[in-house]
Each structure stands twice: as C-alpha cells, then as structure tokens.
C-alpha cells in the first residue's frame, strides 16, 4: 500500500471567505470536487514549507503566518488505495479574488464562509473545514 504526506492550506480572506479549488476531471484524487489548495510534501520539505510552496504554485499567493490546524490520516474513501497523512494549516490573507491565479484545476475561488459546506467537497477538505468553522472567527 502506498503511503505519502500532503499539506493543505485553509486560507481566509478579510471577509472570512475560504479559498477553495474546483478540481478538474483529470485530477488523480477527488476529481470534479472542491478542495483546499495543497499537495504532496517533497523530500526534505517540512509540512509548512510544502503548504507554502503548493499555495504559491496553485494560486500565485504567498501566505503570511500559517497556524497548524490538524494532522492526521486522510479520511477513508471507498476505492482509494493509499495511506495518506494530511497536514492542514490555516492562514489569513489580504488578497482579493482578482489577485488569485488558478494554477491548477477548473477554478480557485474565495467561497463565503456560510457557503463552503454546500459544495461537493473532497474528503480531506470535508473533514478539515468544520474544524475551522467551529473555531472562534477571529482567525
């Protein structure tokens, strides 16, 4: 069984909206679903370094301070043959939608806080988002 680690970034704008990627049909994991920006941790990278690199590659944005939100196993999904450790980080940005470059997927959009759970979410994102939404809204 393959095993690897990924880093995700839950990036919140000034209005509290959360940056989500709409993955395309060619995505190897969670095609056609909405997910947080992120990806594989490369050899020699820390999870936070990977989170920052993936955010820059996928959105053109750089993150200020990132706070560790959660680390754990990717939630079980039927037919998914890998063991994945997910490292999720939360950060805030002054960026606006027009500052975002869609470097991967169909779209990369700031989704209002009260609408994020209305999307068809990738399993890791569906697990991580409520951890943020239940937290006090100051971060």
Account of the 3D structure:
This protein is of the alpha+beta class and 139 residues long. It is built from two helices and seven strands, in the order ββββαβββα. It has helices spanning 47-59, 123-133, and strands spanning 2-12, 18-22, 34-35, 38-40, 66-73, 82-92, 107-111. A four-stranded mixed beta sheet has the order 4-1-6-5, with helices on both faces. A hairpin with an 8-residue loop joins strand 5 (66-73) and strand 6 (82-92). The longest helix is centred in the middle third of the chain and has 13 residues, at 47-59. It is globular. The N and C termini lie far apart (37 Å). The mean pLDDT is 92.
What's the structural blueprint in terms of helices and strands?
Layout (H helix, E strand, L loop, with lengths): L1 E11 L5 E5 L11 E2 L2 E3 L6 H13 L6 E8 L8 E11 L14 E5 L11 H11 L6
Parallel strand pairs: 1-6
Antiparallel strand pairs: 1-4, 2-3, 2-7, 5-6
**Number of contiguous helices:** 2
Kindly name the structural category. Answer: alpha+beta
Distance between the termini: 37 Å
Strand content: 25-35%
What are the segments in which pLDDT stays under 50 over at least 5 consecutive residues?
Answer: none
Main sheet: which strands, in order across?
4-1-6-5
Largest sheet data: 4 strands, mixed
Order of helices and strands: EEEEHEEEH
Helical proportion, percent range: 10-25%
Number of strands: 7
| Global outline | globular
Overall pLDDT, averaged? 92
C-alpha Rg (nearest Å): 14 Å
């Amino acid at each position: 069984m393959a095993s690897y680690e990924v880093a995700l970034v839950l990036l919140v704008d000034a209005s509290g909206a959360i940056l989500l990627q709409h993955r395309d049909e060619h995505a190897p994991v969670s095609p056609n679903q909405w997910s947080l920006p992120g990806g594989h941790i490369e050899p020699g990278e820390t999870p936070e370094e990977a989170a920052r690199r993936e955010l820059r590659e996928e959105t053109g944005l750089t993150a200020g301070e990132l706070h560790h939100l959660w680390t754990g196993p990717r939630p079980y999904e039927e037919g998914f043959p890998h063991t994945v450790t997910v490292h999720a980080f939360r950060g805030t940005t002054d960026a606006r939608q027009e500052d975002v470059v869609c470097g991967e997927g169909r779209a990369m959009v700031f989704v209002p806080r009260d609408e994020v759970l209305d999307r068809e979410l990738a399993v890791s994102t569906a697990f991580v988002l409520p951890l943020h939404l239940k937290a006090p809204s100051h971060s």
